[in-house]
Structures are given as structure tokens and as C-alpha cells.
Amino acid sequence: MLSSKYAVLCCASIVAVSALTISQPCRADDAAAPAATLAPTSSTWTVPDIDKLPDDVWGKTVRYGRDLISKTSSLIGPEVSDASRRFAGNNLDCQSCHINAGTKELGLPLVGVFADFPAYSARLGQVETIQERIQGCMERSMNGKRLPPEGPEMIAMAAYMMFLSTGRPVGAKTPGRGSGRMPELDRAADPAKGKTVYANMCAACHGANGEGQRAGTAGDAKGYVFPPVWGPDSFNDGAGMNRLIEAANFIHSNMPQGTTWKAPALSPEDAWDVAAYIDSQPRPSVQGLDRDYPNRLEKPVDAAYGPYADGFSEEQHKYGPFEPIEASIKKLEELRDAQR
């Protein structure tokens, strides 16, 4: 099992930052829709108590890592006063997707993540470390640049993730990870229908044009109360949230704010359609996406960019239905295996 300390991480002395401030998505104030997200296999969700850490180098490092997740825009965002620390390219916080600093069940939590690495990455076609996984988030979800590999930010983020995996056996599954899994639609998700859902359920917080709501004013490095979901200050087209299956399940389990996987506010169909609408909107573009997933048979069926191993269109990969694509991939895998 993972210990609560990591000698390599402790070698950097980092000053703790002020108390946690949380950027929040919208509130759920309507009657809950019937649950369709597959539930975790355990009824108990536990998170290590960061407040019980001592005020030593390790404790300060872990808390700084927590602050980097919860206050990314204020610490390493594009508006911070020290230009050398502007690693993120947008003013999102990591917890815009990893809710409550990565501690919410089925809110893309970071609990247990450290115990999964090193691990094979289909996107890279090779085994990656937790540090490399963080770099991918910086370049895609944060639309920014890579952190210095041995710098205090990388050390602190890895330390925080390790702390959240305290007591987790290496390689063991953590029930409550991810954002759940709804049954897939037998039709294409419909951005036009999703536009109506967005106007009724999302726009009050995230803005009619997906621009979000600032905590202060542009240029003050205070980030957002409600993050933008498209446009120039949002995640780019290489981010996981730009994939329909990822976005729809996240929305169903977590949106509007206050929603949990046990009592979703949106029906599954509405979640699929509003995710399609959001992912149909303009956002920054990252170069080199054609190099992702060198083994095309390992490419997620909802990757909205080619090339693909199958003969389906980019449109169908973006919006579904996915069952025909999945069936085609399975046949191609069987053919490959038969030829070995």
C-alpha cells in the first residue's frame, strides 16, 4: 500500500498557500431525474483528511498541491503577475473537472489515481508516469504548457495525488472513480435538442454563450465562479471533456451544482444531448492530434478527430451512435488476432 510520505517529493520545501477557494458549477434546483449512471460497487466513499497533516515540509507540499488543483488560475494561470509561472493557458482550475479538488465521488476524483501509475496510455502508445499524465492535462484541459518536471508545481501535484491514494493498494480499483457510465444512446446525440437543455439548465451559470462567470474581472487572476464551457478560455479540442461519452457522463453525475450520481437532475437523453451541444461549440485547437492513439484500434469511439481504423465518419465518432463503431472495431480486432 502507498505510504503517507514520499522521500523524493519531500525534498522540495514549498510554502503553503492560503485557504481553499472553490470554483463551482451550477446548482441543481429541479426534481431529480431517474438515475441511470452505473453506481460504484462500494457504499462508502472516503477521502484522507488533509487537515490532519502536520505543518512540516510534507504537509505544506501536499497542501500546495491541493491549492494548485483548486486555485490553478490564481497560482499558475495566464494572468498571474509573474510571467515565468504562467503555465496554464486558460483561467480554468483543475477542479473545474476534478470537483472539490478531486475529492467528489464520480466527480472525476483524484482519489486512488496515484495507485494506478505507471500505466499504459493508449493515447501515447506507451507506458506513462503520473507526471506525464499531469503534463497531458496541462497541455489539453488547461490549454497550456508543460510544467518543469522537477519543479515545485509538479512535485506538489504528484504529492497531493499520492496523499489522496493513501492506503490504496497499487493497481487496485477505486470504486467512485471516473464519472459513471450511462447506457449509450441508440441514436446520434442531438446538439439542437441540447441547445434547449443548455438554455434551461446551464446558461444561468455558464453563460448564454458558454463564457462562464468571472470571480472578478479579466486580468485579475481570480479565475471563474462558474467556468466557461467553450470559447477561447476553455479546454481545447484535445481534452477528454471534448469527447461525448466523457462529457455526457460527467454532466449526468454532477451538473447542475449539487447533483450527485445518486440523484441526477438531467435525464440520460438530456445529458447526452447537452454534452453534444457543448462539444459542438468552438474552442482552442491543439496541434498534432493525428499522432494520438498510434494503434488506431485503441482509439476511443468518441474521439472527435481522425484518423480512424474503421470506416465511420468523424461526425458519427463525435455524436454517435457508437454501437456500430464498437462492433466494427471488435471485428477488426478479431481479424488482427486471427492473422497473428
Write a brief structural summary.
By secondary structure, the chain is mainly α.
Question: What does this entry look like structurally?
Answer:
The chain has helices at 57-70, 72-76, 99-102, 130-139, 152-164, 191-201, 203-206, 244-254, 268-279, 314-319, 323-338; strands at residues 119-121, 126-128, 213-214, 224-226. Helix 1 crosses helix 5 (152-164), helix 6 (191-201) packs across helix 9 and helix 8 packs across helix 9. The chain has 340 residues and is mainly alpha-helical. The strands form 2 sheets. It has a two-stranded antiparallel ribbon with strand order 1-2. 31% of the residues lie in helices and 3% in strands. Mean pLDDT is 90; it is low at 3-34. The chain is globular and about 55 Å long. It has 3 domains: 9-27 and 42-164, Cytochrome c-like domain (Cytochrome Bc1 Complex, Chain D, domain 2, Orthogonal Bundle), CATH 1.10.760; 191-279, Cytochrome c-like domain (Cytochrome Bc1 Complex, Chain D, domain 2, Orthogonal Bundle), CATH 1.10.760; 289-333, no CATH class.
